[in-house]
Specification:
Layout: E1 4-7, H1 13-22, E2 25-28, H2 36-42, E3 48-51, H3 59-64, E4 70-73, H4 83-88, E5 92-94, H5 101-117, H6 119-127, E6 145-149, H7 153-164, E7 168-172, H8 178-184, E8 187-188, H9 191-197, E9 200-203, H10 217-221, E10 227-231, H11 240-248, E11 252-257, E12 276-278, H12 287-307, H13 324-343, E13 349-358, H14 365-377, H15 389-395, E14 399-405, E15 413-421, E16 425-432, E17 438-443, E18 446-451, E19 456-462, H16 467-477, E20 482-489, E21 495-502, H17 508-515, E22 520-526
Parallel strand pairs: 1-2, 1-3, 3-4, 4-5, 6-7, 6-9, 7-8, 9-10, 10-11, 11-12, 13-14
Antiparallel strand pairs: 13-15, 15-16, 16-17, 17-18, 19-21, 19-22, 20-21
The protein binds 1,4-dihydronicotinamide adenine dinucleotide (NAI) and 2-oxoglutaric acid.
Function: Catalyzes the reversible oxidation of 3-phospho-D-glycerate to 3-phosphonooxypyruvate, the first step of the phosphorylated L-serine biosynthesis pathway. Also catalyzes the reversible oxidation of 2-hydroxyglutarate to 2-oxoglutarate.
Domain ACT: 456-528
Keywords: Amino-acid biosynthesis, NAD, Oxidoreductase, Serine biosynthesis
Length: 528
């Protein structure tokens, strides 16, 4: 029986044709993106779901998706799909990481011109018969400084266009290597430097814990008077209330937003300000981009449904059905070791060394390495996947080295991930026990024994009496339950570490208090 795919958003017709040509039954029901009840009612009849951003793939939808094998996002951001819930159901989630990048970069440039010359306002006034020639005095962009926050695929295209416009382009992106910055032709700077120098700031990062409110009230206060701000990436990167205040005071000269904290944005703090230009998430909305992403998603989904081939999956490596059961726990281990290192890293990674010892060395280590790199980069990159992770690492000048050797220590299989950055070297090792659960067994040469948990705290401290008691009382007083507690130290009175699993997320103020405890060097929240 031919697999069945439902298209529940406005995808280009090109996708329908590809599915038909490949022998996949396809139903084109774009109205379902806004009708979650109807979608839940019929999703059980389909093997594949092709979407853009209107369809929200929630755990409730996935619960009803008894046949679903693959979700294809015709676009980049998969924030409308509950990835953990899809993964838990074994549903592959694919995206199309490059098909709409040029179009979105062009939208940011269009927004920059709209702000510089107040084109929407001048258009409205002219068409109202006012002919207000003196009201609309613009600014020239040539020789102005364009500050790009997030210089990945789209940011790099914006940079190229900005340089073409004779602007001075500076970029803040902790994961941009100096070599890549040189190739793109941008000056790599720290955030404060960008804020102080840029005449126009444009954002091109994913929305993550680290990028949320990257333009906060405090950051906006560090910008130049007269700065213009563009967001064509994700709502939530800029504090909209603080930006409105900065526009009202005249500190910020203009803002152009395509994306908003709440979408669809029927109301928003920025609305109604005379120097604000808004579009309804149109960044990817060109015929060319929509055709690119529709063709690509239909090809990828057909390949998977008909032949089992996986590409651009955000939640699974490319492996065969026979390899999967043996590899799966080690994939999880590699990805979690990478994630552990990635969550603790805020600087430019130069080298990643992965050592496979014992039985695991005979497995498909390319997939394991990809999973480790995807885990490492995911805290920083938009929806990096196991297929794209190695090439992204290469593009960023990260050297990846793999070593295999016979088991030397206590474990049948051991994976060690070491990263070198411009500031430090960090190593973490893990294994999979007979229960199939991945575990951390060594951090920086200090032995521990901890499972990965949804909410954890990693603490480094001096091995002095009293720490555990003080820490436990602090969490107890804050009403936070400690689920597991793993300790290690290099020697008596030396460096110690603790990996603590807690029930529920850790509030920032509690973390601050932990960091302030005597002898604590650092305390970081981790999620797995
Ligand atoms: N408005 C629209 O319709 C569209 C919006 N987008 C959004 O644009 C954004 C960027 O997409 P791509 O360039 O394809 O992603 P990408 O993954 O290629 O680039 C993101 C860049 O942000 C950087 N970054 C991560 N954390 C950072 C931090 N804390 N500070 C500074 N930089 C940081 C990363 O190193 C990376 O270079 C995504 O959020 C995507 O969803 C994409 C397409 C259309
Ligand atoms: O499909 C769209 O219109 C939105 C595109 C987008 O935001 C993305 O690809 O991340």
């Amino acid at each position: 029986m031919a697999p069945r795919v439902l298209i529940s958003d406005k995808l280009s017709d090109a996708a329908v044709q590809i599915f038909k040509d490949r022998g996949v039954d396809v139903d084109f029901r774009p109205e379902l993106g806004k009708d979650k009840d109807k979608l839940a009612e019929i999703i059980g009849d389909y093997d594949g779901l092709a979407i853009r951003s209107a369809t929200k793939v929630t755990p409730k939808i996935l619960e009803k998706a008894t046949r679903l094998k693959v979700i294809g996002r015709a676009g980049i951001g998969v924030d409308n799909v509950d990835i953990p819930a899809a993964s838990a159901k074994g549903v592959i989630v694919m995206n199309t990481p490059f098909g709409n990048s040029i179009t979105t970069a062009e939208h940011a440039i269009a927004m920059m011109f709209a702000l510089a010359r107040q084109i929407p306002q001048a258009d409205a006034s002219t068409q109202a018969g006012k002919w207000e020639k003196n009201r609309f005095m613009g600014v020239e962009l040539t020789a102005k400084t364009l500050g790009i926050i997030g210089c990945g695929n789209i940011g790099a295209i914006v940079a190229e266009r900005g340089i073409g416009l004779k602007m001075k382009v500076i970029a803040f992106d902790p994961f941009l290597s100096p070599e890549r910055a040189l190739t793109i032709g941008v000056e790599k700077v720290e955030l404060d430097d960008l804020l102080a120098r840029a005449d126009v700031i444009t954002l091109h990062t994913p929305l993550t814990e680290k990028t949320k409110n990257v333009l906060s009230a405090e950051a906006l206060a560090k910008t130049r008077k007269g700065v213009r701000i563009i967001n064509c990436a994700r709502g939530g990167l800029v504090d909209e209330v603080a930006l409105r205040a900065a526009l009202d005071s005249g500190h910020v000269a203009g803002a152009a937003f395509d994306v908003f904290g709440v979408e669809p944005a029927e109301e928003n703090p920025l609305f109604g300000h005379p120097n604000v230009v808004c579009t309804p998430h149109l960044g990817a909305a060109t015929t060319e981009a929509q055709e690119n992403v529709a063709l690509q998603v239909a090809e990828q989904m057909s390949d998977y449904l008909l032949n089992g081939a996986i590409s651009n999956a955000v939640n699974f490596p490319s492996i065969t059905a026979e390899e999967a059961p043996k590899l799966k726990p080690f994939i999880a281990l590699a990805e979690k070791l990478g994630s552990f290192a990635g969550q603790l890293t805020d600087s430019d990674i130069q080298t990643v060394r992965i050592t496979y010892e014992g039985a695991v060395a005979d497995q498909k280590i390319k997939a394991l390495t990809s999973a480790a790199i995807a885990g490492l980069l995911r805290p920083a990159l938009a929806d990096v996947n196991v297929v794209s992770a190695p090439s992204i690492a290469k593009e960023r000048g990260i050297v990846v080295e793999e070593t295999t050797r016979a088991a030397e220590g206590d474990y049948d299989s051991l994976i060690t991930l070491s990263i070198t950055s411009d500031k430090y070297e960090r190593a973490v090792s893990g294994t999979v026990f007979a229960d199939g659960q991945p575990r951390i067994v060594d951090i920086k040469g200090i032995k521990v024994d901890a499972e990965f948990a949804p909410s954890m705290i990693y603490i480094t401290n001096e091995d002095k009496p009293g720490f555990i008691g003080r820490f436990a009382s602090l969490l107890g007083d804050a009403g936070i339950n400690i689920a597991t507690f793993a300790l290690g130290r290099d020697r008596q009175g030396g460096d110690a570490i603790a990996l603590v699993e807690v029930d529920g997320p850790l509030p920032a103020e509690v973390l601050e208090k932990v960091t302030a405890l005597p002898h604590v060097k650092q305390a970081k929240p981790l999620t797995f």
